[in-house]
Amino acid sequence: MELILVLNQYPMLFLTFAVLLGLVVGSFLNVVILRMPPLLEYHWKKDFFEFTEQKFSEEKPPSMAYSRSYCPKCKQQLLARHNIPLLGYLFLRGKCGFCQSSISMRYPFIELLTGLLTGLMAYLYGAELHFIAAILLLWFLIVITWIDLDTYLIPDQLSLSLLWLGLFFSLFEFSISPTVAIIGALVGYLSLWMVFQVFKVLTGKEGMGYGDFKLLAAGGAWLGFEPLIIVLLLSSISGLLVAVMQMLLKKSQTKIPFGPYLSIGILVTYLVGDSLMQYLFAV
Description:
- There is one protein chain.
- By secondary structure, this protein is an all-alpha fold.
- Helices cover 69% and strands 0% of the residues.
- The chain is built from 10 helices and no strands.
- The chain has helices at residues 2-9, 11-51, 87-92, 106-125, 129-151, 156-169, 178-203, 210-223, 228-248, 259-280.
- α9 crosses α10.
- It is globular.
- The protein starts with a helix and ends with a helix.
- The mean pLDDT is 88.
């Protein structure tokens, strides 16, 4: 409690702490984004082989928490100074310290994005429980966005955990009520499920994955059912803009992940949804 009082008395100190926390967490989120899909695939294969009573000898991929970071090209374990968020990338000048292979700009970008947005949450909500809720939502959405971009997959471990967190935080005064959260989760899931079914009947194709349904259900658990209109509107607009840009750059894709655009819609609506609702639906 004393620490919370100190942080509330010195908002710049709390803001600095939040940005640094976000940078460190962003570094870990990079690991989760990179390692979670192979781990999930490994366990799916293992369960299948065990179910069919076949021998399974595939080597387990590195864990998200306990395995040391290493260069994907030369496989050398990184030194501690290489893993310092942002500074490590600058120190290495964007190249592996061992084999000089280029390091993707995505890693420092995710660290910087997580740090800045975590700082924004600290500025908006202060050293309160609302801040904890907001940064958890943010961190989950960042991981979901990049995993979906890489694999066209939204793991249930992420979307369902986010849904339960939304229901949990609905128990506190700063959030929506549990009733509204439950209805929001139901409306979120069923709205995309119905669109999916109609599209499938009309075209014979599946227009989106079930992970998108679960992600919007999680958004409903955090926001309630009415703001989901804003989420879908923002998601559709952002997705359309990216699709148009890809067409202009002649980089068309046969598959377009919808999770990143849903994540943008959920986060923006969480932050400024009330203002957008008043602006769009003012009587």
